[in-house]
Structures are given as structure tokens and as C-alpha cells.
Fold:
Amino acid sequence: MSWRFRRSIRLFPGLRLNLSKSGISMTAGIRGLSVTTGKKGTYLNAGIPGTGLYSRQKIGAVSNACRHATPINGGLLTCSCGYNNPPTANYCGNCGKKLDK
Structure:
């Protein structure tokens, strides 16, 4: 059995600070509709209060694949973040995006 930790602190009406084992996040909104932002990204949360039905969708997501990996002198692959990767790399050593060769 694993232990989990989660604590939500109401700062103002409609604004909460969320603390957990994995980090800190902020939630702003009303009951049934809110936006949460943290280290994993920004999410839109919508639900019907009192029913247990809800939806959570990541917003402002950046593609996880680097579509601009280009070979340069010496065979290095340059990622869109500007990092030069060895030609055998599948993922960027700087930002972690998948390199499309």
C-alpha cells in the first residue's frame, strides 16, 4: 500500500493553493468549472456538482515531438530548442522531445 498526500488551501473565494507529494499547483474558478496550473501543465476542469461526473482536459499543450530536427555539420541533429544532439539520439538531450529524423 502506498501513501499519498494532498492538501488544498483556500486563499480567496475562487482561488486555491494545492499541495501534494508531487508539487504545488494553483486552481482558479467556481464550483463545476475551474482552471488548474502546475508543473505538469494547465488543465480545464468541468463537472456537474454533486454527481461525480467531470471532465479534465489539458489546455495550451505543446507537441511532444520535435518536428524541426535538422542535420548540421558533423551529422548532429539540431532540435527546435537549439540543442545539438548526436545523430543516434531519438530524444533531445535538453528538452526531451522526440526527434523526427
In short: The mean pLDDT is 84.
